[in-house]
Amino acid sequence: MHDGGCGADRLRFGSREPARSQLEAFLSVTNDRAEQIFTGQLSEQTFRLRPRYLEVVKESLAKRMDSEAIGDVVWLDQSGRGIHCAWLAGTCSGWTGITEGTAAGNSVHGQEYFGLTNSAALRLPEFSIYTVVKAVNSDQAQSIYCNYDNPINWGKGVNLQLTQTAKCASLRRMARKRTTTR
Amino acid sequence: MTSGKALSEGYHIIGVTYEGKQKNIWVDGELVGRSPSKGLDYGKGSVAAVGALREFGFEFRSGIAELIICDSVDAGQRAAAEGYLSAKYGIGALVPPPRVG
Question: Does pTM top 0.95 for this prediction?
Fold first, then answer.
């Protein structure tokens, strides 16, 4: 019986009892893993970037861009001074950016304009402006660039525009009463 | 001040300079307007805009490819800027001829 008892114990625990160090190592690993899962450190092991998830992220980003598009910077200042153009009115459909080698990239449609983000920095006593524009017939003057104010219907600042059908370029010092009703 | 020469339909390089006593307009490298100038009064509330006279209208109805604003007036600067735009967009006869030999 005494041999059988010993034999039964050996069968229950295997042929050899685990070393204390092995048991401690096992507990250490499982405890650490449990703690990591609990604290979120192992969340990446169960998270997969599945196609559907990526689609949802893309849709969300697109919706956010659409909702925030008006007023965002869409034409960047390339001089390094950070005076960017922000879209203030109209829709930006068709605004494809500047394409190297062609002037056909950007067009406005009579309903849109940009506001520059630092008008004060552009209140220059002397200046030079160089621009590439497409001249078209119009029943009204077309403003290319201005730094303009209209306090009490009294124009101040400057305005570079194309005149009506003659399409002459015009640089106007706006220091007179504005009579146009628009 | 208005240029004395009408622009044909299509893309053009327009250059304007404004300094204490004089203002000028060039179209495709040709001087088309010059007149005396006075000092500018912007007020404290002027807003710089591209494509319209702000919310007051006069919207531009066609293409604006590029706009460069400099805080000085200089003949060399103008030649460089117009040459750059001409070469980039293939407009006018401002492109320097290729060197031969």
Answer: no
Asked if the Cβ–Cβ distance from B18 to A126 is below 8 Å, we say yes
Profile chain A (182 residues) by mean pLDDT over runs of 10 residues. Answer: 41 54 71 70 64 81 60 63 63 39 45 74 87 86 87 81 76 59 39
Structure tokens at B56: 């007051």
Q: What is the pLDDT of residues B30-72, one digit of tens each?
A: 898 888 888 888 888 888 888 888 878 888 888 888 888 888 8
Q: Which of A154, A152, A169, A115 is nearest to B52 (CA)?
A: A115
Cβ within 8 Å of A, B 49-78: 49-74, 77-78
Inter-chain CB proximity A125 and B20 less than 8 Å: yes
How many CB pairs (< 8 A) connect A and B?
287
Per DSSP (E only), the strands in chain A are 73-75, 85-89, 113-116, 127-135, 142-149, 156-162, 169-173
In chain B, which among 24-53 make CB contacts under 8 A with chain A? Answer: 25, 27, 32-33, 37-53
> Residue A101: what are its φ and ψ, rounded to 5°?
90, -5
- ipTM score of complex: 0.90
Domain ranges of chain A: 51-173
Nearest CA-CA distance, residue A66 and chain B, Å: 22
